[in-house]
């Protein structure tokens, strides 16, 4: 009989749906950029809960915000609003292109809201024929049936029956393919301003600016999925702010709550009215606990000190990864922006990214993958230099371990 007060990894196989294949160790405690497992073994966290723990683990200000709100009010229905939700929405509106905000619980839910708004706006304004959505191969937008179909990875969307229709996928950064795909029946274009799950692929500046121009010409709404790139991850509050392009709708999640589940759809006064009462909703979206934490996260990240610090830390990681590569020659390039970085494997190690992740855990450092060929790093935006250096030292041990196989 398993001790429920000290559950083991084996219990996962007994009681959990086998959607995941988690590591053998079970983390129980975190502080800053370090995590400890059940055996009190320490790990440096370069994964950040998949770009979520933007201020590390158990940041005192976030613990304080959560505790304070927990003693006030946890949940209401959307028959009422609440103070933390209003304060957070005001912060977002004052610091982005947006005029209006809709709160949800996850990136997938925020993207679902983005797509529903775009379809409803087109339906109301132009008629039901204007319903086409353009998205990009290797894109990722969530796991709801609508968002996983818009995402450009069939392995995630196949096998569940008939898919939502009128969705076209084209190669990322291919402007000619985009020109051929967009027309007056296109209602929306959904794009990541830096592809995450698809391999940490940055957009060509001319490409993304042409996409904006053509969307405007065809009255198609441009949706930026900033679930992973938002909240300082690339060195500005949102990635669009350094591309010279403003979307019509934007999704944000992951780092927004610093580890507490929350997401939001951002849009303007022109489009927001098309989600009138009854057309969309969320029981938990905008709940006081999540919004109180996210408001504090927003306050702490949206400072020159943190945002400029992201660019400094990016260079620490690039220098460290390049030094490892000079010795072991495993990476073809270091991709990405800010603290969303990808070490792409050479052809010799193609398909083996997960081996580096597993070896990393064995050596006391947590990393991610982005597909089978890219090792992904998405650490805390305020990770100290000593943790970067120690984590890279452990990661070098992991690289050596994989190569020794």
UniProtKB/TrEMBL annotation:
UniProt remark on cofactor binding: Binds 1 pyridoxal phosphate per subunit.
Pathway(s) of this molecule: Amino-acid biosynthesis; L-arginine biosynthesis; N(2)-acetyl-L-ornithine from L-glutamate: step 4/4
Entry's EC annotation: 2.6.1.11
Pfam families referenced in this protein's UniProt entry, alphabetically: Aminotran_3
Record: residues binding pyridoxal 5'-phosphate: 140, 225-228, 283
Catalysed reactions, as listed in the record: N(2)-acetyl-L-ornithine + 2-oxoglutarate = N-acetyl-L-glutamate 5-semialdehyde + L-glutamate
Cofactors required: pyridoxal 5'-phosphate
Subcellular location: Cytoplasm
UniProt entry tagged with the keyword Transferase: yes
Modification type N6-(pyridoxal phosphate)lysine: residues: 254
Major localisation: cytoplasm
Keywords per UniProt: Amino-acid biosynthesis, Aminotransferase, Arginine biosynthesis, Cytoplasm, Pyridoxal phosphate, Transferase
Note: May also have succinyldiaminopimelate aminotransferase activity, thus carrying out the corresponding step in lysine biosynthesis.
The protein's name: Acetylornithine aminotransferase
Organism: Celerinatantimonas yamalensis
Protein encoded by which gene: argD
